[in-house]
């Protein structure tokens, strides 16, 4: 069983436990769901129900639940984890596929950062180095590029530094096209094969 399979299994078990508690009628609000999942994760960690490989995932989810409460949106995080580990990527929406590509890039030691308007352009723009593998997005542009269903509604601009051809290939494998005029600025568009 791979690390991805183990993380997917963890998420599936948590979502099944949540679904059963919902069917029992014991959870009637998002706050109760967060409390249930936080307790479930704490018990799973304490009893070592899952392989060590996913301990960091459990600890991170547990920390999010405790720190942010209902704002942690644990059911959504678990659903994302499950879908990204087990689902057919081409069936996911545009934002999900982009997020998956960026998370994969981070695992491959790429720098990823959302930039404020001030950091994106102008005299205070963040200086970028071609020696660093990095992908940078404008937070404002990212917010405007997707609708509430995660579909792309306008082009997304990205600055890609370092071995940009590797990032372009990764994006392509996730159903995204990256076009550039030769500089570090890329225009990202979701491919036609999206689900």
Shape: elongated
Major β-sheet strand ordering? 1-2-3-5-4
Helix content range of the residues, please?
Answer: 40-55%
Number of strands: 5
**Rg value:** 19 Å
> Approximately what portion of the residues adopt beta-strand conformation?
5-15%
Residue ranges: pLDDT <50 for 5 or more in a row? Answer: none
Q: Estimate nothing, just give the exact number of structural domains.
A: 2
Based on secondary structure, the structural category is alpha+beta
For the sheet with most strands, the description reads:
5 strands, mixed
How confident overall, as mean pLDDT?
Answer: 88
Q: Please trace the helix and strand order, writing H or E for each element.
A: HHHHHEHEHEHEE
Give the number of helices: 8
Terminus-to-terminus distance: 27 Å
Explain the overall architecture.
It is built from eight helices and five strands; from the N terminus they run H-H-H-H-H-E-H-E-H-E-H-E-E. The protein has 195 residues and is α+β, with helices and mostly antiparallel strands. The protein has two domains: 3-86, no CATH class; 89-190, no CATH class. The chain has a five-stranded mixed beta sheet with strand order 1-2-3-5-4. Strand 1 (111-115), helix 6 (117-120) and strand 2 form a beta-alpha-beta unit. Helix 1 (3-24) crosses helix 2 (30-46) and helix 1 crosses helix 4. The radius of gyration is 19 Å and the shape is elongated. The protein starts with a helix and ends in a 5-residue tail after the last strand. The model has no long low-confidence stretch (mean pLDDT 88).
């Amino acid at each position: 069983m791979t690390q991805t399979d183990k993380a997917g299994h963890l998420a599936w078990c948590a979502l099944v436990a949540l679904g059963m508690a919902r069917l029992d009628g014991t959870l009637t609000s998002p706050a109760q769901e967060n409390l249930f999942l936080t307790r479930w994760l704490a018990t799973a960690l304490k009893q070592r129900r899952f392989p060590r490989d996913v301990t960091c995932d459990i600890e991170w989810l547990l920390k999010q639940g405790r720190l942010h409460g209902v704002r942690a949106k644990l059911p959504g995080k678990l659903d994302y984890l499950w879908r990204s580990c087990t689902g057919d990527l081409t069936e996911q929406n545009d934002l999900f596929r982009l997020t998956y590509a960026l998370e994969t890039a981070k695992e491959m030691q790429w720098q990823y950062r959302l930039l404020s308007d001030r950091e994106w352009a102008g005299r205070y723009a963040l200086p970028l180095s071609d020696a660093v593998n990095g992908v940078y997005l404008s937070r404002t542009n990212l917010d405007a590029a997707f609708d509430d269903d995660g579909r792309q509604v306008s082009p997304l601009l990205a600055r890609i530094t370092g071995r940009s051809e590797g990032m372009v290939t990764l994006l392509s494998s996730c159903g995204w096209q990256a076009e550039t005029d030769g500089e570090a600025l890329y225009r990202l568009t979701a491919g036609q094969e999206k689900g």
